[in-house]
Design a protein that fits this description.
Strand 2 and strand 3 form a beta hairpin. Helix 3 packs antiparallel against helix 4, helix 4 runs antiparallel to helix 5 and helix 6 packs antiparallel against helix 7. The chain is elongated, with a radius of gyration of 37 Å. It has a four-stranded antiparallel β-sheet with strand order 3-2-5-6, with no helix packed on it. The chain has seven helices and twelve strands. The N terminus and C terminus are likely disordered. The chain is α+β, with helices and mostly antiparallel strands.
C-alpha cells in the first residue's frame, strides 16, 4: 500500500511540474508576441518590459531564449547600457551556437528532415546576427585584457568588476569604462586584487601573477647563506660544444650507416656468392656494392669521431676547476631573494 501511495505522489508531482513548465512556456511566448507587436508599433519602452518578462520566465525554467536576448540587447543599447547589450548579444550567440550544434547532431541521424535543416539555418543566422551586433559594440567599450600567470591553479576564481569569468591564460572583458576591480582567489593561496582605469575605445592590460601559498609565499624559498661551488663556466661551455658536436656527428654516422646497409642489400640481391666471394652480373652492380662499402666505412669513421668528441666533452667538464660563490639571502616586506658574489 505504501509503495502505491509513493507512486501516486510522484505522478501528481510530475504532472504538476509539467503543467507549471507548460504554463511558463506559454506565458513566455505570450509576452514575447506582445513585445514584438509593441515594438512594431514604435512603443519601445513597453516592448522592452514585455521582452524582460518573457526572458525571466524562460530563464527560471532553464530554457535558452537567444531571440529574446537579441531584443533585450537592442533595448539596452537604446538605453545607453552598452556593456549590458554586449553581454546579451554575446550570450545569444553562444545559445544559437548550441542550437546549431544540436541541429547538426540530429541531422546526422535523420538527414532527410527538412524541419531540422530549417532549425539549423535559423540557428546559424541568429548566431551570425548576434555576433555582428556584439562586434559592432566592442569598439565603443573599454577592452580589459587580463593575463593570468597560472590559470590552471585548482579552484582559481577570477572576478572582473561584478562578473565572474572562467580562468584562462588571457581573458578579454568589455566594460563601459571607469575604474575596474580585478580579483583572483584560490584555496590555500593569498588573494590578489588590483584595479585599472578603463577608457571606452581603448585597451588596458592587467597582469595577475602567480598567487602565493598561504603562510609560505610563492616560488622557491631563498637558499641559506654560505659558499656554493660550481664548475668554471668557460669550461662548461666548451664541454657542451664538444658534446653537442659529437651528438651531431654520431647522428650523421647512424644515418649514413643505415643508408649503406640499404644500398648493400639492394645491390647484393642481384649478385651471387661463389666460393665465399660476391659475383655480380655487371659493372654497375659491382660499383654499387663497392659504394655501399665505402659509405659504411665513412659511417664508421664518423661514428668513432662522434664518440671521441663526446668523450672529450665529458673530460673537459669533469676536469674543469670549480668556482666558489657566496650566497646571501635578501628579503624585504614585499620581496625575497638571494645575492650572489664571487669570481666569474
Amino acid at each position: 500500500m505504501r509503495v502505491h501511495i509513493l507512486w501516486l505522489v510522484w505522478l501528481v508531482l510530475g504532472a504538476t511540474i509539467h503543467v507549471a513548465n507548460a504554463d511558463s512556456a506559454s506565458d513566455a511566448t505570450k509576452f514575447f508576441a506582445e513585445a514584438v507587436a509593441l515594438k512594431e508599433g514604435g512603443k519601445y519602452a513597453e516592448a522592452c518590459g514585455k521582452f524582460e518578462q518573457s526572458f525571466q520566465l524562460d530563464k527560471q525554467a532553464g530554457r535558452p531564449a537567444p531571440g529574446t536576448q537579441l531584443n533585450l540587447g537592442e533595448c539596452a543599447e537604446r538605453e545607453g547600457q552598452l556593456r549590458k547589450a554586449y553581454l546579451l548579444f554575446d550570450d545569444a550567440e553562444k545559445d544559437y551556437g548550441r542550437r546549431a550544434k544540436a541541429a547538426e547532431t540530429s541531422i546526422a541521424k535523420d538527414p532527410s528532415s527538412a524541419e531540422l535543416k530549417r532549425d539549423l539555418e535559423r540557428a546559424l543566422a541568429g548566431r551570425k546576427l548576434a555576433r555582428e551586433r556584439a562586434d559592432a559594440l566592442a569598439p565603443r567599450l573599454a577592452k580589459v585584457v587580463v593575463r593570468i600567470a597560472e590559470p590552471a591553479v585548482s579552484g582559481l576564481s577570477i572576478q572582473i568588476d561584478d562578473r565572474s569569468v572562467a580562468p584562462a591564460s588571457e581573458v578579454i572583458e568589455y566594460l563601459d569604462g571607469g575604474n575596474v576591480a580585478i580579483t583572483a582567489t584560490a584555496p590555500g593561496r593569498d588573494p590578489f586584487t588590483t584595479s585599472a582605469k578603463a577608457e571606452p575605445g581603448k585597451s588596458v592590460v592587467v597582469e595577475i601573477p602567480a598567487l602565493k601559498v598561504v603562510g609560505g609565499g610563492g616560488g622557491e624559498p631563498p637558499r641559506p647563506a654560505g659558499p656554493v661551488s660550481r664548475r668554471q663556466r668557460k669550461r662548461v661551455l666548451i664541454s657542451a660544444a664538444l658534446g653537442g658536436t659529437g651528438l651531431v656527428v654520431a647522428g650523421v654516422s647512424i644515418i649514413l650507416g643505415l643508408g649503406a646497409n640499404s644500398d648493400y642489400k639492394d645491390a647484393s640481391s642481384r649478385c651471387t656468392s661463389v666460393g665465399g666471394k660476391l659475383v655480380c652480373p655487371d659493372e654497375p652492380t659491382r660499383k654499387a656494392v663497392d659504394d655501399a662499402f665505402a659509405k659504411a666505412d665513412t659511417a664508421t669513421i664518423l661514428g668513432i669521431a662522434g664518440v671521441g668528441l663526446l668523450a672529450a666533452g665529458a673530460v673537459v667538464y669533469f676536469t674543469a676547476p670549480k668556482e666558489t660563490l657566496t650566497v646571501t639571502p635578501m628579503a624585504s616586506s614585499t620581496t625575497a631573494g638571494v645575492s650572489l658574489s664571487g669570481r666569474f
